[in-house]
Amino acid sequence: MPGRAPYLWPDLDARTRPGRGRPRVGHHEAMTEFDRLARQVYVGARDGVLDPEAAFDLACFLMDGGPPSDAVRQLAEQSVAGTDPAMLADLAGQVLEEVRFEPDFEVEPRLLEVFQRALEAVRADMRATGLDDPDRVNLRLDDSYLRHNFAHFRGYFRFTRGIAPGEGPERVTALVAVADDVQDAVMGVLKMAWPVCPAHRFGGHAREHDGRAVWWCKGGGGHVIALIGHWGR
Ligand SMILES: [Zn+2]
């Protein structure tokens, strides 16, 4: 989007270099600190109980890395002034948007429910295509990386990108993301294309088409094989 340069990430890198006023911290530590602050501010702003101190810490963290945006500077000022909780929450929201913060499943468990429902739909497609143990695919929180869930298959997991919580709010997007991830896991384990278009024998891929989540085949000029969750129906 215009005017939303992702200025944070280069700054985070800068923080991990020595000689910048703070002890050298690893990138991982900087991300962990950022995550902790951003999550605290996100939950506080969402629930109307934003702690000005947390908002201030987040603003300082961001200012520490380089020239702040207007929103970051105002967030710092307002958190010190402490006179207008609504404005503070609004500024916090602007800052979180600027840094492209995405709530994870821990702070927004409802997102996980959307994914669980999507997974049920993809399981139906696995059963319909004759995969023997679809129930062993499950969404699992990876403790080392709480931002993402991964589909697991037969105790293995293989994935290209995982499923980010930000992909969750819309059912169609969640279906496509989960189907894509399950497909990666299944193909990685079984070493074969899945699912396969019955007409053309090409492997299908999950995508959005006309506002619906579908398995798409490139054969015959491209066509919908089935709605995700409705294979063979
Ligand atoms: Zn086809």
Account of the 3D structure:
The chain is mainly alpha-helical. It folds into 2 domains: 8-98, no CATH class; 109-227, no CATH class. The chain is built from 7 helices and 5 strands; from the N terminus they run H-H-H-H-H-H-E-E-H-E-E-E. The chain has helices at residues 8-15, 27-47, 52-64, 70-81, 85-98, 109-128, 171-190, and strands at residues 138-141, 149-152, 205-209, 212-217, 223-227. A 3-stranded antiparallel beta sheet has the order 3-4-5, with helices on one face. A two-stranded antiparallel sheet has the order 1-2. The chain starts with 7 loop residues before the first helix and ends in a 6-residue tail after the last strand. 36% of the residues are buried. The protein binds zinc ion.
Annotation keywords:
single chain, 233 residues, mainly alpha, 2 domains, two-stranded antiparallel ribbon, 5 strands, 46% helix, disordered N terminus, binds zinc ion
Strand order of the largest sheet: 3-4-5
The tally of beta strands, per DSSP, is 5
Strand content: 5-15%
What is the ordering of alpha helices and beta strands?
HHHHHHEEHEEE
Query: What structural class do you assign from the helix and strand content?
Result: mainly alpha
Number of helices: 7
Largest sheet: 3 strands, antiparallel
Distance between the termini: 39 Å
Query: How many structural domains?
Result: 2
What helical percentage do the residues reach? 40-55%
Poorly predicted runs: 1-24, 141-148, 152-162
Could you tell me the radius of gyration in angstroms?
A: 22 Å
Which molecules are bound besides the chains? Answer: zinc ion
**Mean pLDDT over the full residue set:** 76
Net shape? elongated
